[in-house]
Amino acid sequence: MTRLDQLKPDESARIVAIDGEYELRKKLFSKGITEDNIVRVISSYGLITFEIGRKTFAVGRGIAQKIRVIQVI
Hints:
Largest sheet: 6 strands, antiparallel
Number of helices: 2
CATH architecture: Roll
CATH class: Mainly Beta
Number of domains: 1
CATH topology: SH3 type barrels
Helix content: 10-25%
């Protein structure tokens, strides 16, 4: 298991857990960022930009460190 901020561009992973306080998890869930989603990293320079399905998201490195993932091939 690794964290979202450790993935490189074009790597994909499944979200297995979102650590952090309730408000952070609630905010991410309301945007559609939840456990079991498959994410593909677009850019990891500055903000971590990734997509889930056809939606694109960008989060700061601090938030990305709280999103635990397992890489998929």
